[in-house]
Amino acid sequence: MTTIKAICKQAKSAALQLAQLSEADKNQLLLAMATQLEADTALILAGNAKDMAAGREKQLADAMLDRLLLTEERIKSLANAVRAIAALPDPVGQIRQMAPRPNGIQVGKMRIPLGVIAMIYEARPNVTADAGALCLKSGNAVILRGGREALNSSLAIAASLHKAMETQGINPAAISVIPDPDRALLLELLQQKDSVDLVIPRGGEGLIHFVSDHSKIPVIQHYKGICHLYVDKAADLDKAMALLLNGKTQRPGVCNALETLLVHQDIAPQFLALASAAFEEKQVEVFACDLSLPYFAQASKADEAQFDTEYLRLAISVKTVASYDEAVAHIQRHSSGHTEVICTQDLSTAQRFLKQINSAVVMVNASSRFSDGGELGLGAEIGISTSKLHAYGPMGLESLTTEKYIVIGDGQTR
Amino acid sequence: MTTIKAICKQAKSAALQLAQLSEADKNQLLLAMATQLEADTALILAGNAKDMAAGREKQLADAMLDRLLLTEERIKSLANAVRAIAALPDPVGQIRQMAPRPNGIQVGKMRIPLGVIAMIYEARPNVTADAGALCLKSGNAVILRGGREALNSSLAIAASLHKAMETQGINPAAISVIPDPDRALLLELLQQKDSVDLVIPRGGEGLIHFVSDHSKIPVIQHYKGICHLYVDKAADLDKAMALLLNGKTQRPGVCNALETLLVHQDIAPQFLALASAAFEEKQVEVFACDLSLPYFAQASKADEAQFDTEYLRLAISVKTVASYDEAVAHIQRHSSGHTEVICTQDLSTAQRFLKQINSAVVMVNASSRFSDGGELGLGAEIGISTSKLHAYGPMGLESLTTEKYIVIGDGQTR
């Protein structure tokens, strides 16, 4: 148990050094890390081979084995992701709103790292390099606690990163891997509020609930994405069909895929006829409200509870609404706070929707699939928050920082 | 128990209405609330009289009775504080960084209310009006859970505010007072994470620890203020004396008062001689390190643990340091993250301090007593955060809001 505490304390100490690095120093460090990852390809593949063998023995699902698998090409793209993070602008040290007060003191805010971030994740070895690079670029130390399935891969990646850090004079405790994915140790980690500033869990709802329920440290929460598309009576039906199919079928297993279609009753006859044909072609299973059911040859009846379902597959809930207000009320009741889309050509309706819906990402005439750090222009994403505190929506480098006040006087007193 | 849940749900529903109000609507509401408070002076004084009688019977300390007491003048100043909040700029609806992505979608951020804020406080009836006004101005509903000692005063103030809200068509659940300060009900309140977005405890360390330890809702933490003044070897000694005396003696019982003086050894002989005379005159009790002890006629020896003490009275810890770096290391070890001050005329040293120290407020040549929402220009303060998540330092209206992403497209898909 003392080991976890010691790891956290060393990370806190390493964070003090990182917070003082210049952007140039940090970029040089990240580029060295990328080069080292490529140089250590054989060692990393050897670690990964152990995980793959154990995974096959445990008969992990094919999708999981694929997430776990590293290849020379995948290591190359890991390294390139680290290079891309080096190229992002550094938020640390930015000063804003510097202004004098009546007594002559100057007051402003300066952006600073959070300190130590703990990442809790499952069987994705790439997170080790990604999260390490994002945290270092924003001046934070990171403690990585991945799943048992990817442990050897993660340790090999971390060992490679440590080599690069040592050549740059950086305390390797700035990227620490918890070497034992035991739950008791995770619980111990979640108690270290004196040294860890933020916990970011990435994975299934079970993991996130476990972390939230047991953490004494603030947690970024992202439970699920029940994303809505509301097709307004003033919608352009071609655009609406494009948004619907892209949102539901382009990659149904991710959190920014659509789960619910709301249609205004005035255009329901036309639009649901189109949707029905398209769903049949794409083999999308439909759960429809009473008013929508007649438009589908094959659909199950959706009761109210159905609208709280995140399918993560080719299935969708469909509801016909009598008005814009009914659509908004439905979203407010069933939203998971992730992403909601309106399709309308009416400017007033679009503006009302942008103002009234307070999910993390609110869109007009654009696909919910754009709700992603890369697509929204953050450069890289360390997670997505569906709770409003600290960060809301896709989280980039700025979300790993905070602001302190700075005051410059000339001896003023109160 | 169901009552607490019902109060929270009603507050959440009221918050949806508040989030849509224009700044003009909110200002009109606050001005009506101020007028109503003055009109209800007699009713509020009657409620307060009950609390005062009970407080005297319970033999509350004089300082506590004074905090509890309302007078016609104090009610007038409560009303004026609400008017001052009406005059502050509204952060809600502000849009920033709206910019096109390569595919033509426009992406930006819009500031929105958090939703429902729970204030947990002790025997200060003025918080009922202050916090109510700050939360409403920022579009949030608020649940107020004050101490038993001020309950009748709080209920009378809330009843007055509700009258004004009703004339403006605002759901009175937007300001809810928990009518029973039972701890079991507080525990129940701290579980309502589905309807409450943020908990702000204001009071002693015991209350804040209790709230943090039991809350399933994010909590703004402010334990204590161990504020440091470091007098550098390049300090202007007159300015340093002014900052020291103002910081320690102007109002020693508050969290932005100084608790520790660090002095560079090169100027310790001169400066500590001045400080010693001044402390004697002002009757400040001194706890000094071995190197500092000889300068004081009457001082106790300070061991390392002494430097973690928040005195909140006319007492101070004093340490002589061999270098700037030793001062920074001492602060990093003992700081509570509140406010630290350097006194120096050396620009490079000042810049290093501003960068290296990551407390919520970092000052050069200015009194720690300026570390306050009003003095820093926030207009009003709902609390102060010494944890880095969401808000750090004095919290104004902006701290009661968050940002969502908004996306405007023309049918783009991925």
From TrEMBL, chains A, B:
The protein's enzyme class: oxidoreductase
Q: State the Gene Ontology terms under molecular function.
A: glutamate-5-semialdehyde dehydrogenase activity; NADP binding
Q: What is its main location?
A: cytoplasm
Q: Cross-referenced SUPFAM superfamilies, in alphabetical order? A: ALDH-like (SSF53720)
Give its E.C. classification number: 1.2.1.41
Annotated catalysed reactions: L-glutamate 5-semialdehyde + phosphate + NADP(+) = L-glutamyl 5-phosphate + NADPH + H(+)
Q: Does the keyword NADP apply?
A: yes
Query: For this chain's UniProt record, which GO biological process terms are given?
Result: L-proline biosynthetic process
Query: Where does the UniProt annotation locate this protein?
Result: Cytoplasm
The pathway to which it is assigned is: Amino-acid biosynthesis; L-proline biosynthesis; L-glutamate 5-semialdehyde from L-glutamate: step 2/2
The Aldehyde dehydrogenase domain extends over: 3-284
| Pfam families (alphabetical) | Aldedh
Q: Which UniProt keywords apply?
A: Amino-acid biosynthesis, Cytoplasm, NADP, Oxidoreductase, Proline biosynthesis
Task: Please state which protein family the record places this protein in.
Answer: Belongs to the gamma-glutamyl phosphate reductase family.
What this chain does, per the entry, is described as: Catalyzes the NADPH-dependent reduction of L-glutamate 5-phosphate into L-glutamate 5-semialdehyde and phosphate. The product spontaneously undergoes cyclization to form 1-pyrroline-5-carboxylate.
What protein does this entry describe? Gamma-glutamyl phosphate reductase
Instruction: Please tell me the species this chain comes from.
Output: Rheinheimera mesophila
State the organism's lineage.
Answer: Bacteria, Pseudomonadati, Pseudomonadota, Gammaproteobacteria, Chromatiales
